[in-house]
Specification:
The protein has about 475 residues and is an alpha/beta fold. The chain has a single domain, classed as Amidase signature (AS) domain (Amidase signature (AS) enzymes, Alpha-Beta Complex), CATH 3.90.1300. A hairpin with a 2-residue loop joins strand 12 and strand 13. Helix 3 runs antiparallel to helix 4 and helix 10 crosses helix 13.
């Protein structure tokens, strides 16, 4: 059962096709893992065994009869608790959200996966409204790292990352407005892809929708490509939605990196990096060169991106908190309240300048990618640290934005980016971030796949 829980979605589908095992058996294997580990690691805020088994039995009947309904028919899948899903409350890690509502709509990503036959297991934990790169909330408590439960898995898609790492589903929906897919992917040793902004439509609109991305979190690059393909589909509810695009992102996945022009940035804007991470990432870049990539050390023109992103991010969250009643504001994460109170001093000219800076930086990064196909850099400058802290106890950081300098700039500029495991420090994973120009997820996935094939992903000892 444990082995079945750790099969990739691609392997599960092959097994269903051969009738080696069934979607029902796969679902039961996943729930066995949830029973074994969720109490300790707190990846789920909602688990629905009955609904999952109903969906799995229906999928099994399709596989035994006329054939699958879609690309991921019968694959155990989770939904981050920021994304609405029919029949389940979406509480967003907050005591201020009432569960007694009509939960009758699916977010676009959930709807597409449901249409493609996914078996939904439950909802994964998030910090309140996904506001920080950690995974604790007033509603659900702390989610813990599968490599060391004393440590944070990162966030805000921390529950999804833990579920992926521990075999509690094969496909996991995450969101990313400042690194919320890539940081937990790096901290837990999985694959996390932030597609081009609005590649995967989002609804309802949130204050940070202008730089929030929906994407896959998986144990393999092939599954990330499969999941991205399954989630595609225009949705009129998303005001930022890209034109309809039904491409299969698995095509040319194995074309490798030979001849691709790769920029290697050891850091951005002189942000300090743990020397051990710097060494591991440098080795990973050398490995890409050995695979045929044409590597050149070069830093993208992103000066000021984090500061301008922080302005827009704080104002977005302040608008959310300002709409609350005084009683609700007393219930929320007090660090969130303090974070948004600092936005009170942001004047309109400063906000407008941040918007103008975004336009300039998107154009500058697009220009950079006229010379290079890919950019590689660390996913984060540190490894996972103690759970329950906003910043590491032994670092120079005052806010969580300071220890996430390599992720937010690519939300700000809308570019596709992924984190893939590239090593470990003291038993904790290190992530390599791979970025491409707008709309070139194919290059990100190709490079991740090439690296993955020569660096098999490790799993936590807990199985």
């Amino acid at each position: 059962m444990t082995d079945l829980a750790f099969l990739s979605a691609t392997e599960l589908l092959a097994g269903y096709r051969r009738k080696t095992f069934s979607p029902v058996e796969a679902a039961k294997a996943v729930f066995s893992q949830i029973d074994r580990h969720n109490t300790t690691f707190n990846a789920f805020c909602l688990v629905d065994l009955d609904a999952a088994l109903r969906e799995a039995r229906a999928s099994e009947a399709r596989w035994m009869g006329g054939g699958p309904r879609g690309l991921v028919d019968g694959v155990p899948t989770t939904v981050k608790d920021l994304l609405i899903s029919k029949g389940w409350p979406t509480l967003r890690g907050s005591k201020t959200v009432s569960a007694t509502q009509d939960w009758t709509e699916d977010a676009p990503s959930v709807a597409r996966l449901r249409e493609q036959g996914a078996v939904f297991v439950g909802k994964t934990t998030t910090p309140e409204f996904g506001w920080k790169a950690l995974a604790d909330s007033p509603l659900t408590g702390a989610t813990r790292n599968p490599w060391n439960p004393a440590m944070t898995p990162g966030g805000s898609s921390g529950g999804a990352a833990v579920a992926a790492a521990l075999g509690m589903g094969a496909l996991h929906l995450g969101t990313d407005a400042a690194g919320s897919i890539r940081i937990p992917a790096a901290f837990t040793g999985i694959v996390g892809l932030k597609p081009t902004h609005a590649r995967v439509p989002a609804y309802p609109v949130t204050p940070n929708s202008g730089f929030s991305h929906v994407g896959p979190m998986t144990r393999t690059v092939g599954d990330a490509a499969l999941m991205l393909t399954a989630m595609l589909g225009y949705d009129p509810r998303d005001p930022y939605a890209l034109p309809p695009d039904q491409r299969d992102w698995r095509i040319n996945l194995d074309n490798g990196v030979n001849g691709l022009r790769v920029a290697y940035a050891p850091t951005l804007a002189n942000a300090p990096v743990d020397p051990r991470i710097a060494s591991i990432v440098r080795d990973a870049v050398h490995d890409l060169a050995d695979l045929g990539a044409l590597v050149e050390e070069a830093e993208p023109p992103l000066a000021g991106a984090m500061d301008s992103h922080a302005v827009l991010y704080r104002v977005a969250l302040r608008s959310l908190v300002s709409a609350m009643t005084p009683e609700q504001r007393q219930q929320i994460d007090q660090d969130l309240r303090a974070f948004t109170e600092e936005a009170a001093d942001i004047a309109l000219p400063q906000y407008l300048e941040a918007l103008k800076a975004r336009e300039r930086l998107i154009a500058a990064l697009n220009g950079f990618f006229q010379t290079f196909d890919l950019l590689v850099l660390p996913s984060a400058p540190i490894v996972a640290f103690e759970s329950g802290l906003l910043v590491p106890s032994n670092g120079p950081y005052k806010t969580w934005f300071e220890w996430t300098p390599f992720s937010g700039p690519f939300n700000f500029t809308k570019a596709p980016a992924a984190s893939i495991p590239c090593g470990q420090i003291d038993g904790l994973p290190v992530g390599l971030q791979i970025v491409a120009c707008l709309y070139r997820e194919d290059l990100v996935l190709r490079a991740c796949r090439a690296f993955e094939r020569t660096h098999p992903v490790k799993r936590p000892a807990l199985r």
